[in-house]
Design brief:
By secondary structure, this protein is mostly helical. It is built from three helices and no strands. The longest helix has about 55 residues. The protein starts with a helix and ends in a 6-residue tail after the last helix.
């Protein structure tokens, strides 16, 4: 075989290696993105379930409901969030 031919083959294989590495990197990035999305969805679901639980717990107990609203008043700073609970705007 000629040296030039071998050099061309090496060059082609190096280019192919670059392509494969790029594909691998893209696949890893997609997987990481999927995992983060799943974590966000799970976090949102946990928050919804905790909120639902707290509403159920305080449903018939005005004292517990008042404590919850007091805590929400301390915690919430965003105007639209405060409006949801009829809290005074800060």
């Amino acid at each position: 075989m000629k040296i030039e031919s071998l050099e061309q083959q090496i060059s082609k294989q190096q280019e192919r290696l670059k392509q494969l590495k790029a594909q691998k990197q893209a696949a890893v990035a997609r997987e990481r993105s999927k995992q983060k999305e799943l974590e966000r969805k799970n976090d949102t679901r946990r928050k919804i379930l905790i909120g639902s639980c707290m509403l159920k717990i305080t449903e018939g107990d005005e004292q517990a409901r008042a404590k919850l609203i007091t805590q929400m008043d301390k915690y919430l700073t965003d105007e639209r969030d405060r409006k949801l609970f009829n809290l005074p705007l800060q």
